[in-house]
Amino acid sequence: MPAALVWFRDDLRLDDQPALQAALAQEYAPIPVYVHAPEEEGDWAPGAASDAWRRRSLQALDAALRARGSHLTCVRGPTLAALQRLASATGAEAIFWTRRYEPAIERRDTELKRALRRAGLHTESHNGALLVEPWDVATKAGDPYKVFTPFFKAAIARMRTPRTWDAPAHLPPVAFDDAAAHAIDAPAIDALLPAPKHAWNRTFWSHWTPGEQGARDALRAFVPKVAAYPEGRDLPAMEGTSCLSPHLHFGEVSIARVYATIAQSDAPKDARIAFLRQLFWREFAHHLLHHFPRTTDHNLDPRFDDFDWARVDDAQLDAWKTGRTGIPIVDAGMRQLWHTGWMHNRVRMLVASLLTKHLRMHWLHGARWFHDTLVDADLANNTLGWQWVAGTGADAAPYFRIFNPTLQAKRFDPDGAYVRTWVPELGTPDYPPPIIDLATAREAALAAYARR
């Protein structure tokens, strides 16, 4: 049986893994590989929280492969040289992978595919991350959508019912002779992604279990909660969301598996649709990033290119990052982020609004911090979210829509349970006064908008 490299990236699973399935269907013996080359991701290389999660997820994937008779081979980049070296050392005739949609990665993968095919390797990429590919949805004029609702209608009309495959029970063993092992030079996962020296992420793992089993458990736990999702998703003190975002980002569960599981659940139809609609917001984000790659660093709406953003106040920005603004629900969210690597979506909107509107700092300052500290730091979702709140992106909330965090807390955390969890010193001398007056800051933001 000829061999093929199956190159794992942000698809760290064996269940419903299209690259692995394609290799097996074409009767190749798969050689699972991971190439560590964060420098090839440009200005948005994975942050610290992502690296901490990926390390554990790769370990989980390797364990799952070993339980099936195989194992994961990890190597350092550059990616093209690494894949060519692996193919030469193992005699692999083909390479399979699933697609990614970040701008730097899309450009690199296009060049990789050409170079590998010129070298005589059969090369295939597959959709393993989206329900509908970005090039399959367009307006009647052939343009990409910039407004969610018409995008949702068009995308769901183009979507085929997801077909999912179970993980194989067994895989062919991967064995290298001494010469091949020397040529491959595969370090251990801990050498590629060492554990943080100061264990700053130690509190994450009481909340999360990286890897495919953790993803399955999270999906299974969410199914009984779907019925309450339409109301529960907005209440940060309640475990009403799926908490699948990091598992989806790292591909530990397929989007098709999540869609099929929820669509076929016993929850009321309106509840199922409410959640599935959120999956399409994720689709929308990836479609936008594919069609508008500059939006990772530039406003989608060029009218904001000359907006009067405030000069960065380092003390205020640091207070925002560390949850010491004196605005309880904002501080609660930022502390939840620091201690768990995640923040409730309703609160993400509030902390982003405070930074971009009350403090009037450019949304990139927040996007960079989230990218480094979130375990679900998905470049597409992060870009869409920050530009949406700032009013500069697709289907964005208008800039003059400024969330009042005090009123939002009364509405969505009415008994203060969420705030008390993360800001236990509230009401004591240890809690700082507000760094800004909300009403005055709101007027300054509106004045800046009027000068636009």
UniProtKB/TrEMBL annotation:
Residues 2-131 form the Photolyase/cryptochrome alpha/beta domain. The keyword Flavoprotein applies. It comes from the Bacteria. PROSITE patterns: DNA_PHOTOLYASES_1_1 (PS00394), PHR_CRY_ALPHA_BETA (PS51645). Coiled coil: none annotated. Pfam families: DNA_photolyase (PF00875), FAD_binding_7 (PF03441). Keywords: Chromophore, FAD, Flavoprotein. Its cofactor is FAD; (6R)-5,10-methylene-5,6,7,8-tetrahydrofolate. PANTHER family: CRYPTOCHROME, CRYPTOCHROME CIRCADIAN CLOCK 5 ISOFORM X1. Belongs to the DNA photolyase class-1 family. This is DNA photolyase family protein. It comes from Noviluteimonas lactosilytica. The lineage of its organism: Bacteria, Pseudomonadati, Pseudomonadota, Gammaproteobacteria, Lysobacterales.
